[in-house]
Design goal:
The chain is of the alpha/beta class. Helices cover 50% and strands 9% of the residues. Strand 8, helix 20 and strand 9 form a beta-alpha-beta unit. Bound molecules: iron/sulfur cluster (SF4) (2 copies). The site of one iron/sulfur cluster (SF4) has 14 residues, from helix 2.
């Protein structure tokens, strides 16, 4: 725990999504901070109950942002998980995930084979394969990143690297392709380095701090060699790790890591065009994102991912871009969707409860736009009758 002493004001509870669903002090940010303080002093022993409280946090980061004393509660929770991982309810599953995130391509191939078998013979109903049914992940046909790739613009004026991240790479590679097209169309080369590994967030979230640090070192070594203006990822959690958390984990990070909307917004401003490139009127016939009758702009809700808001100060750029395109933006209360990476798979019911709180309002919109593949995954489990898309797809479509 941080050297600053918690004064128990409760400020950190205000936006805690787990506390909103379960009004139990131990399910709040303050409750977890107090439990971990007692644990670090040896006043309470490690146990399954303590572990459940600490592993039921979404790791959204709202509490650390809200604490008036600047206490980094999420960091305390990560450290607590490192000490308590032997007491988690699904230890073997967590251990399997930890190994899987370190051998992503081998796991991808294995899962593709199992997926194929399951289509003809439903093996996911059999006990050892049941977790795969619970996870309910549909993998892409092939990953986005397959060897070293440089996607060149016709008249390049700069180059950026893409940090694909696990979800974009294996679930939604088309969003990565949209980003590459968008970058090329504003005259940027895009590099996908072959040596990228998982950012380490899932491992760290599961309490495997050392293993996460090893991945961080590999990524930093690989990306620091590239002579690029920015590192862009479609996942705010990956960016948060690379930019902020690696500094604590391995003493090094990369400040040039950013979200796609932050990069596009800054480039279009620099170019003196403002955001007029994204005008709906002139581009409407080419877009896949106007209303069916093409007479009125779509109503859009921008779902701001937690790590965008609390750790990257991002989100306003995306909304500005959407407004410039001409969408009718519906303002909604900001809040977590309940994904939280491995949180969703370890706390399925709580994850759904958090999501259900958002869904009612989201039904008012024609389309939901967000900036995180995890949020896309989560929102699509309940919203099946409208598009739930990444801002990079919208930018690409708007740029034509
Ligand atoms: S906001 Fe900070 S000081 Fe207040 S209860 Fe939470 S951790 Fe303690
Ligand atoms: S990170 Fe989010 S879910 Fe976890 S304690 Fe803080 S506010 Fe609550």
């Amino acid at each position: 725990m941080s050297k600053k002493e918690c004064v128990r004001c409760g400020g950190c509870k205000a936006l805690c999504p787990t506390y909103r669903e379960d009004a139990n002090e131990a399910m709040s940010a303050r409750g977890r901070a107090v439990l971990l303080k007692k644990f670090s002093r040896g006043e309470i022993k490690p146990s399954k109950t303590l572990s459940d409280r600490i592993f039921s946090c979404v790791l959204c980061g709202a509490c650390s942002r809200l604490c008036p004393l600047g206490i980094n509660i999420t960091d305390t929770i990560y450290k607590g998980r490192n000490n308590l991982r032997g007491f988690t309810k699904r230890r073997i599953f967590c251990f399997g995930l930890m190994l899987g995130f370190q051998k992503r391509y081998a796991v991808f191939k294995l899962l593709k084979v199992l997926e194929g078998i399951n289509r003809t013979f439903p093996i996911y109903k059999i006990r050892p394969f049941k977790p795969l049914r619970d996870i309910d992940i549909r993998l892409a046909g092939s990953p986005l990143r397959d060897g070293v790739s440089i996607f060149r613009a016709v008249r390049p004026k700069g180059r950026v690297a893409l940090f694909a991240g696990c979800a974009t790479n294996f679930l939604y590679p088309y969003t990565g392709k949209a980003l590459i097209n968008g970058l090329n169309s504003i005259n940027y080369d895009a590099i996908l380095p072959a040596v990228e590994v998982c950012c380490g967030a899932p491992l760290r979230g599961l309490g495997f701090e050392k293993e996460a640090a090893r991945l961080a070192e590999k990524n930093i070594r690989a990306f620091k060699k590239l002579n690029v203006e920015a590192i862009i990822s479609l996942c705010p959690t990956c960016i948060h790790l690379i930019k902020n958390e690696y500094k604590g984990l391995i003493g090094d990070g990369m400040d040039i890591a950013m979200e796609a909307s932050q990069f596009f917004s800054s480039k279009l401003k620099e170019g003196g065009n403002g955001l007029k490139d994204f005008r709906l009127q002139s581009r409407a016939p080419k877009l896949n994102i106007v209303s069916a009758n093409r007479l009125s702009p779509l109503s859009v809700i921008y779902h701001a991912p937690c790590h965008s808001i609390y750790n990257l100060d991002a989100g306003s750029e995306a909304i500005q871009i959407l407004k410039s395109i001409g969408f009718n933006i519906i303002d909604v209360e900001r809040g977590c969707c309940g994904f939280g990476g491995t949180f969703r798979f370890l706390n399925q019911r709580l994850s759904e409860d958090i999501l259900n709180r958002r869904i009612g309002e989201y039904r008012k919109a024609d389309m939901i736009v967000t900036a995180c593949p995890g949020c896309i995954f989560q929102l699509r489990t309940k919203i099946r009758d409208k598009r739930v898309v990444h801002i990079a797809e919208v930018i690409n479509e708007a740029l034509g």
